[in-house]
Design a protein that fits this description.
single chain; alpha/beta; Rossmann fold; six-stranded parallel sheet; three-stranded antiparallel sheet; 7 helices
Length: 299
Amino acid sequence: MSGANRGASVGSPSSGSDEPNGEAHSGTVRLGHDVRFVMIAVGGGAIRVARPIARRHLRHLETIAINCDPRVQEYEEFDRRMCLIPESGGQADTCGSPLAGAVLARAAEPALRRLFDEAHFVTIIGSLGGGAGSGVLPNLLELASERCHHVTAFVLKPFACEGERRAIAERTIGRIHLLEGFSDLRSQNRAVLQVLDNQSLVGPLATRSFRSVSDHWARLIGDYVELNYIDVAEAVVRSMLGPAPTAIVPEPETATIGPGVPPPAEVLPPIPAVQLEAELTFEVHERPTETPTSLRSGS
């Protein structure tokens, strides 16, 4: 994990210590350590969306890319990269088969499960219609639901012109709604499914490149994670510490964050209210489960 992503620690105001808040003492809550924020991209399309987010080096956020294609190892902007391959050492790609992707996910379950050790807030981006997104994503969501405090899933739905891939995506969304663990979390307002339909951008982005679609979702998701997870967490920690002069002290290498990204034309509503094990309370609200039919192109 790079220093740019890990690095805020806050000291307890009752400790009575004159040490800087960056030093460890009892009662310290360290965002990015005691409270983990994880973003995972599954599938080639999801990785294209997540790469600009990873390059933003959002505070405290761990980024992971998962695919069944060995080229995933080339994406160095992610903190971790995983390629799911058969134990036989045969062909790694799923050839677009969700069934093959699901088989690889079950075989890799111990390694996938470890991704969520002590993870509190997890954002999973999945591109539906192919082997990794439609095959691996449901298994990953169930593992996250078993181990994480809050799970947000952004699933990317192909364009209408993509025919069979869009049909596969529809079936995968139906399957996700039936996942037992994920459904249980949703009933507790601790998990949300957000469908991002590429077809909704046909009008606004008609004159732009295909890459602009990925960039649009990247800005939307990145700003969402920063505003509704990270910023809220830091504000809550500061309120816990009362009038302490410096509640959060970044490590030296985190003092300068990458260039800012303008907010999208439409920002998703905040997440449901949840309670952290570290006694951080996030008071936010529920958002819709479907993407608006149209988004302004100004994003």
